[in-house]
């Protein structure tokens, strides 16, 4: 097994964890599913413009450490190859996805109780 890792601050980690809890998945499983969809699709499931216009660095909310995901070597190689082909660092792609999930959770949190989680179906669309 090999690892794919990104560095995220503690606020983003907390918000992404809340999103994952709301859909009943672990953070690792959500990232693995994203990576599998990313390498199988002909186009990335993200907007490339986000990396150049909307993904501005902000002051960190404190050290959050790394988010590590264990994957097979073949999956890791395919993921990094596709990122390289797009000319976008893998950490940007993963951080963008994690941020979108966390933002979606925060925006929709007021719509549902934590017990009922329609957030998952809305995020998947």
Characterise this structure.
With 125 residues, the protein is mainly alpha-helical. It has one domain (2-124). Helices cover 58% and strands 10% of the residues. It has helices at 10-22, 27-40, 49-54, 73-86, 90-108, 119-124, and strands spanning 2-7, 66-71. The chain has a two-stranded antiparallel sheet. α1 (10-22) packs across α5 and α2 packs across α4. The radius of gyration is 14 Å and the shape is globular. Residues 51-61 and 113-125 have low confidence and may be disordered.
Quick gist of this model?
This protein is mainly α. 58% of the residues lie in helices and 10% in strands.
Fraction of residues in β-strands: 5-15%
**On the 0-100 scale, what is the average pLDDT?**
75
Low-confidence stretches: 51-61, 113-125
Distance between the termini: 31 Å
The major sheet is characterized as:
2 strands, antiparallel
Query: Quick one: how many beta strands?
Result: 2
The helix content is 55-70%
Compute the gyration radius: what is it?
A: 14 Å
Say what oligomer this is: single chain
- Please list the strands of the largest sheet in the order they lie side by side: 1-2
Index terms:
2 strands; 6 helices; 125 residues; mainly alpha; disordered C terminus
Give the topology.
Blueprint: E1 2-7, H1 10-22, H2 27-40, H3 49-54, E2 66-71, H4 73-86, H5 90-108, H6 119-124
Antiparallel strand pairs: 1-2
């Amino acid at each position: 097994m090999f690892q794919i890792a990104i560095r995220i601050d503690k606020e983003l980690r907390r918000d992404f964890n809340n999103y994952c809890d709301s859909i009943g998945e672990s953070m690792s499983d959500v990232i693995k599913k994203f990576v599998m969809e990313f390498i199988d699709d002909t186009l990335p499931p993200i907007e490339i413009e986000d990396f150049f216009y909307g993904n501005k660095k902000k002051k960190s909310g404190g050290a959050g450490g790394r988010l590590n995901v264990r994957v097979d070597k073949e999956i890791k190689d395919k993921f990094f190859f596709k990122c390289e082909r797009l000319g976008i660092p893998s950490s940007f792609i993963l951080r963008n996805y994690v941020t979108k999930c966390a933002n979606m959770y925060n925006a929709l949190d007021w719509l549902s109780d934590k017990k009922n989680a329609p957030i998952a179906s809305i995020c998947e669309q």
